[in-house]
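SAMPLE LOG
Freezer: B-3
Tube label: C17
Construct: single chain, 178 aa
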Amino acid sequence: MTTTTTTTERRVRQLSPSELDARYPIDCTIDPRTGVVRVTKLWEQVNLVRVQLPDGFGIEGKFWLHKDAAPVFQEWFRAIGKADLRRDIMTFNGAYNPRLKRGENVPKAKAGLSRHARGLAIDLNAMWNPMGKPPAAIGSTGTMMRIAPLAKQLGLVWGGDWHGSSCDPMHLELGIRD
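STRUCTURE (predicted):
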């Protein structure tokens, strides 16, 4: 007997570095002394699209995302609106940004690229959800706890599920389903 699993039942996880390179290759150079990332204009033109937060969120949000990530994030914003949770997004704090990951001991090579460098991630409510700290609790200003489950249902990974110094509750990125 064959069992089928619906998309909402399958776990969403972060792409491994090899999956990331295979699915979302990036044409860039990284200065090994400074860590400055330079993405080619052609890669940006082919892979990035302009996204805008829908009306009613109370904040201005126009940003660039990878063409494969944009529809998932747009669907998530619509789901937030439909669930009447727009007020949970207090600030928009970034999307496409050609840079290395934050933290110590990050290699100054493609393995050290942030998911933001490929346009696969956004940050929200950063003031209340700093990296390395637990997510803001439900009922507190800037909480992501009510909107993160909607993100996971649609195929996004939430950094608030990570532990210790890796916990990054402001961060959401395109994931993959197992």
